[in-house]
Q: What sequence folds into this?
């Protein structure tokens, strides 16, 4: 598995670099959408990151602000009928690879979990009007990252959810890592 390959490379690389420049991170890019990493802090744990996509409309608007304050704060993103984005979601789970399978989390299960708990819920929806999660929560990219974290965190065992990063555009993204 990619996890075992990384775990095997780590000690060799870590021993080969000079003491003043220790190995901090080793990353294996399996496909443009799937990567594995080991960090220096926990060299027995492998992080698995996969990209997912959904398309949705939203309107940035806070019920606690006046219409004028909302317009001033959010500009054209406060347009009453909303606007759309193709969201890119990077989900990272972490764990010690399973002894039998060598996987942090079997990929088909990871994909099915994100699909059923996140993508099927948010894709092709108007986030403010069509989803319970954002009925009373402003669907900013920050809040979307935080909400997706809570939608996924209970469902990735035996791995643990490490972070959720949501790109609203290639330039604008937010990350939530619990807490
Ligand atoms: Ni927007």
A:
């Amino acid at each position: 598995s990619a996890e075992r390959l990384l775990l095997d490379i780590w000690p060799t690389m870590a021993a080969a670099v000079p003491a003043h420049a220790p190995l901090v991170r080793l990353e294996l890019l399996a496909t443009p959408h799937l990567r594995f990493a080991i960090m220096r802090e926990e060299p027995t744990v492998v992080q698995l990151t996969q990209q997912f996509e959904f398309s949705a409309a939203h309107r940035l608007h806070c019920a606690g602000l006046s219409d004028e304050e909302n317009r001033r704060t959010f500009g054209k993103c406060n347009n009453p009928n909303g606007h759309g984005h193709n969201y890119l979601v990077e989900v990272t789970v972490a764990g010690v690879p399973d002894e039998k399978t060598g996987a942090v989390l079997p990929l088909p299960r990871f994909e099915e979990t994100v699909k059923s708990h996140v993508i099927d819920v948010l894709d092709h929806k108007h986030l403010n009007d069509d989803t319970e999660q954002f009925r009373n929560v402003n669907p900013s990219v920050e809040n979307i990252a935080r909400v997706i974290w809570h939608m996924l965190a209970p469902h990735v065992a035996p791995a643990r959810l490490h972070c959720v990063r949501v790109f609203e555009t290639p330039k604008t993204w937010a990350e939530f890592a619990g807490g």
